[in-house]
Amino acid sequence: MDIREIQDLIKFVAKSGVCEVSLETDEFKLTVKTENPASKAKETIIYQVPAEQQVAHAPAPVAPVAAPAPVAAAPVAAKPEANPNQTIIKSPMIGTFYRSAGPDKPPFINVGDEVSAGKVICIIEAMKLFNEIESDVKGRIVKVLVDDASPVEYDQPLFVVEPA
Q1: Domain 87-163 adopts which CATH fold?
Q2: Using one digit for the tens of pLDDT, what is the confidence trace for 132-158?
Q3: What is the pLDDT of residues 79-103, one digit of tens each?
Q4: Helix, strand or coil, per DSSP, at residue 89
Q5: How many CB atoms lie within 10 A of CB 101?
Q6: What ranges do the domains of the chain cover?
Q7: CA–CA gap between residue 126 and residue 90 (Å, rounded)
Q8: What is the pTM of this model?
């Protein structure tokens, strides 16, 4: 039995809610035990090899089933000033923010540039897909709130725009 098969067995035990599984052949004996399945399961693997060799005990990590781990967000400056003459363009998704189409390309927009509704203002990479984000307002860019190649959260402010 190789490590991949052992990992598959651990995943099966974690998903099934079974408290203990033992597997024995002529070559080895493998036991996977969990605590109460209702609690966060801790597994103990006992892998026994013939006679003279020692028994190995190793806790195995359990893949999270319910909620995904939170994504570390780039530090965001204090909430942008609530100026009634300005509009905030926010991120429509979680991902990595890019100001340009590539490292050797110029930024889509800079502070002071005029934008119109539908103009591409940045790219957000999510799950290996590069999504062009378009402006939904017409105006002038007052401030860029996120650094290039920084992680962003859903609804995180990206740009401050003074509408035209």
Answers
A1: OB fold (Dihydrolipoamide Acetyltransferase, E2P) (2.40.50)
A2: 999 999 999 999 999 999 999 999 999
A3: 555 578 899 999 999 999 999 999 9
A4: strand
A5: 15
A6: 3-60, 87-163
A7: 16
A8: 0.51
